[in-house]
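Look over this today:
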Amino acid sequence: MLPPLPVEVWEHVIDELSIHLTTLWSCALVCKAWQARSRFHLISKVTLRNKQQVYRLSRLLDEHPALQTRVQTVRLRPDTLSGPMTHFMSFASMLAKKLPAVTSLWLFHSKWMPNTAQNNTFIHLSNFSSLSELSLRGVTFASPLILARLICSFPNLSSLQLVEISISNRAFDSLQRPSVLPPVKKIKLDGPSEDVADLLALHLGVAAEVEQFFGGWTDFEEDVLSDGAIMTIFRAAAPALLHVSLRLWGTPKTGAEQIEDAATVGTAGMITRL
């Protein structure tokens, strides 16, 4: 019989499986020696689909306070594709002070309904002082005001990714620029984003200090980032912009040349034409 392998060897193997969540869950059930290392990786990236999962995570963090600083990424998605995010308020109120080290929040394929958040929900979000990255993919907002309040809730937000965002009511009349804006330095846009670009650049002003801009990396040509959205970000961020990376879908030659001219003034980066 072969001698048993040291625990350190198994821990190294588990480290290599850190992105394979299903396998990690299986490892956590093997024995106590594997459980701690597996739990470490499982808790670092958490996906929450409903209120019950939010409650369970909150209870786990209460019972094991040492785990609170290990959560780095939280992904929120609804139980049904493009359904309401019914657990967003619970997430904000129950976990705002229990995740002191979280750096990234992702919201996937959902509709922002009237009961998704209340005024105090955005106050709870401001307690996520360590959060630096907000990523929204396939989210529908009722108005630009709601998206603006979500972005501005995080005081130390430096990276913003918005992919395939829809805004039902495009009126900006009720939107007032906050006196304090998050220090956004990196923006990534994909999909139809003219309303989003207008919000970031013209109405909120968060694009003014952006140093890195990425756009057009969607795999679906019908969701192409418009040239107008690109130029809107360029005009707002020109003084600070250092790096640009774009993929242009079917942009006419003259339009592509204008974009390239705007992108190469004081910047480094890459532009791909398709």
Observations:
- The chain has a mean pLDDT of 82.
- The radius of gyration is 21 Å.
- The chain is about 35% helix and 20% strand.
- Residues 6 and 12 are 10 Å apart (CA to CA).
